[in-house]
Amino acid sequence: MLAFFGGGFGVRRATMALIVVLPILAVCGALAPRPLVARGWPRLALAGLAAYSAWAAISIAWARILGDASEDAYRLALYCAAFLLALIGLRTPALRRHAPHVLLGGILLVALYALAGRLLPSIVEQTETTIAGDRLSQPLTYWNAMGLFMAMGTVLGVATAGDARLRPLWRGAACAAAIPCFAALYLTFSRASYLALGGALVFVLVLRPTRRQLLATALVVAPGLLLLALMEVLPGVITIDQTDAKRTAQGAAFGAAMLGASAAAGLLLARLGRGEDRPLPLGRGLRTVALAAVVPIVLGAGVLVASHGESIEDVPTGAGRVTTLDTNRDQLWGVGLEAFAAHPIAGIGTASFQVEWLRERDERNSALDAHSLYVETLAELGIVGGALLAVFLIAVAAGVARRAREGPGDPVVVAAAGLLVAFAVHAGFDWDWEMPTVSLTALVLAAAALQAPGTDRPEPLETDRPETRLAA
To answer: How far apart are the C-alpha atoms of 236 and 119, rounded to whole Å?
Structure first.
C-alpha cells in the first residue's frame, strides 16, 4: 500500500505507517509465545538495527538540520517495529512460506500500474515530472527506487518459478509475473538496478543449482530481452515526448505483446518444468566461493565504473543513459568520505550530508543524500554508526547462510537471499534506505529467511506425487 503513496517517503507517510504497525505489534507481542524473537542471529540482527536506529536518534544532538534528522528517526523507528513484527509473525510456518508469494503479488500490482500509466496515458493518468524525464518513476516517484523494486519483483518471480515444491501452475504464474516487472525495470533506465538484478539472479542460480531453476531464469530473461528490443522500435513506449494518441496506440500494442510473452513463458515453464529435477554440475567449493563473492564483485565493478566514468552535472534522463558511463556519484561519495575523515567517530549527524554537499560541491545540483547507504552512514554516523550497521548486515547474512545450510533449497531462503543481494548492491549506489516501500520489503523477507522453516508440510515435490510416479 505504501508504494502508492510515494513509496512511503516523507515524515508524514512514515509516521502514519508507524501508527498502523505499532498497535499490531503490541497485539502480536502480547499473544505470541515466548521468546518473541529466537536466540542467535535473529536476535542479533534486531539488536543491531535497534542500536543503529538509537545512535541515529542520539546524533540529532549534533545534526545540522533538526527537522530532517527527526524524520530519519521516525523512519528508523518504523523499520525497527516492522522488523520485530515480521520476526514475531513469520515464525508461523504458513505465513513464512507464503511471504515471497504475497510480496511478489504486491510488486506485480505496482508494476502493472506503472506500466499502465506509461503504455496507456490516455486511459490511466499518472504524474510525469520534468526531473524524471523518460524514466519510469510512478508510483514511488523516484526512478531508481522503482528500478530496485522491479528488480526485487523479477528476482522473486524467478526464484518462485524454480521452486520444485510448487505445482507447475503456480510456478508458471510466478514466471509470468516476473516479465512485467522486468519490462518496468528497463523503463526506469536505472543502471544500478540492472547491476543489482544481474548479481541477484546469479546468486539464486548458485544457491539453487538445478536445471529447473536455470529454465525458469531463461524463460524470464529471454522474453524480457525480446520485449526490450521491441521497446526500442516503439518511440511511444520508450519516451514520453510523443502525443498521447501515439503513445496509447503503440503502448497498447506493446502491452499485448508483453502479456502474450508472459502467458507463453508461464505455460512453457509449466509444461517443461515437470518431472524430476536434476542438479547442475557445480561443485560445492565453487558454489561457496561464488556465493561469497557475488556482492563484493558486483559492488566493486559498479564503484569502478562510477569512479572512471565522466563526471557530469546532468545525467541523461532517457534511454541514452543506459549506454553511458556518465555519473555524478563519485563527487557525492567524495564529499561523504571527506565528512567522515573530518568527523570519524560520531559523524556529522543524521540527515546532515546535504549541508556538507552545499558547502563542498563542485556542481550546481543540490543533493540530500550521498547516494550510498554505506558512505552516508560513515559520513553522518561515523565509525560507531558504521559498526552498528555492519552488525545488522552481518547478522542477517550469517543467519540466512545458516538457514541455507540447514535446509538446502528452502524456497523462502532462496527467494529472500536473491532479493537481499539486489538490495545490498543497489544500496551502495542510491538512497534506497530512505524509501520505506523498498526497505520494508527487504526487512520482511530478511525476517522470513532468518526463521526456522517450522513443522508444516510444504507442497510435495512432483516426484513424490502418486501421479508423477505412475507416469514415470
So the answer is: 8
C-alpha dist (Å) from residue 448 to 88, 105, 328, 355, 390: 10, 17, 36, 38, 20
Report d(CA 85, CA 83) in Å as an integer: 5
∠ CA(392), CA(78), CA(7), 5° rounding? 105
Cell numbers that stand for 342 in this block: 573530518
Other beta carbons less than 10 A from residue 163's beta carbon: 25
Instruction: Return d(Cα 411, Cα 143) in angstroms, integer.
Output: 29
Q: How many CA atoms lie within 13 A of 426 on its CB side?
A: 34
Question: How many angstroms separate the CA atoms of 331 and 189, rounded?
Answer: 21
pLDDT in tens, 340-397: 999 999 999 999 999 999 988 776 677 899 999 999 999 999 999 999 999 999 999 9
Cell of 381: 554516523
Under DSSP, the state recorded for 279 is B
Query: What's the Rg (C-alpha) of the chain?
Result: 22
Are 263 and 177 within 8 A, CB to CB? no
Residue 466, preceding peptide bond in cis (omega within 30° of 0): no
Are the beta carbons of 214 and 259 closer than 8 angstroms?
no
Q: What is the pTM of this model?
A: 0.93
